[in-house]
Amino acid sequence: MSNLLSVASVFTYIGYIILAIIVLLFMVLIHELGHYTAGKILKFKINEFSIGFGPKLIQKTKKNGEKISLRALPLGGYCAFEGEGEEGQTNPQAFNNQKPWKRLIVLFFGAFFNFLSAIIFSFILLISSGYDLVEIKNLNENSINYNTFQTGDVIYGIDGKEIDFVHDEYFNNLLTDCVTDHYSKYDGSIADLENEYSFSDEGKTYYFDMQSINFNVRRAGEDIEITGYINVIYDDKGEYAGWSLYSTNQADSNEFSIGNYKYSFWESLVEAIPFTCKWAWKILVILGQLLTGQLSLTSLGGPVTTINTIASYTQTGGWAYLAILLPLIAVNLAVFNLLPIPALDGFQMIFVIIEWIRKKPLKQTVINTINNVGLIVLLCFVVLVDILQFV
């Protein structure tokens, strides 16, 4: 029976891997559709619109000669414009014969479409499950907070510090910091806690001690500060061991429960753009930390890591976890493609801007060499960070 369960688990995970690949291809499709849409509007000649690289699996040729392709390697995609990367093109619709401002728009629209999709995914996330703010879901008379909190209260800060996911200041993190800052060691005799609630875990006895915390709460549209209570947990030596929201029975989840605050339709509509911008800024902060050595390369991941992460999170948390990943992946693609790195859109835009300023283009052979070398280095880097994730 156990062997059958193992085989079933493997096939289940393979299914989630396939789902993850489809999600990644969908993100690439959105990006390339941005280039394609801008190109069509601005009258560029497009030779091929492809999802994936390598050998073609499916290809359809439209009446105007455009090819729509699905290729074997789901590691990216491209929108091939007439004369892109070539000199001496006489076709006025060729990419390099178009005005610089038009080319900049076409290059920018890939990331722009990713960003727009991130806004839509953020809206879906906020309205379906919420993300950052915490809501009091259940509160009964057994709770130590019965006379302070109300069901439906939204906690947006602790001790004057607002929840801010950009800097990893989530509810649990803020509360833990607040507790450890003030109560790293019980300042009384542990015997004073003998009559308080205690529990045993792996042969050790732990004690609860009620402590007050200032919470910033949104109630009926009004922001207020209230004093709530949590139980700080100590071991038998008085050392801090954590905190709990429960007062009489740690296993009684009906006593006091919290969950993500689900935004209303209009709140989600208003918050979707700033929420997405915060994610973009968070990504830039992480990139800055990588450049300054505050984070290691193991914090990054390539396509393999991305696929594995999507599969693992979706298998563990279902569609709710996938809803969190979608805006994050979309905004990642938007930011990453605008970076001034060879072979990416951001670097191509720099060449176009230089041409615009100089009033004449750089030699295409030089640009192609830089892009080709950059692409090889980028692919090697992507493979490296993927390998580091599994070493």
SSE topology sketch:
Layout: H1 2-41, E1 46-61, E2 67-81, H2 100-128, E3 134-139, E4 154-158, E5 161-162, H3 171-182, E6 198-201, E7 204-219, E8 222-235, E9 240-244, E10 256-260, H4 265-291, H5 303-317, H6 319-337, H7 345-358, H8 364-390
Antiparallel strand pairs: 1-2, 3-4, 3-10, 4-5, 4-7, 6-7, 7-8, 8-9
Which descriptors would you attach to this protein?
2 domains, alpha+beta, 10 strands, 23% strand, 391 residues, elongated, eight-stranded antiparallel β-sheet
Strand content: 15-25%
- β-strand number: 10
Indicate the percent of residues in helices.
40-55%
Low-confidence stretches: 1-5, 248-254
Tell me the number of structural domains. 2
For the CA atoms, what is the radius of gyration?
A: 27 Å
Largest sheet: 8 strands, antiparallel
Shape: elongated
Question: Span between N and C termini?
Answer: 32 Å
Number of helices: 8
What structural class results from the helix and strand content? alpha+beta
In short:
The chain has 391 residues and is α+β, with helices and mostly antiparallel strands. The protein has 8 helices and 10 strands.
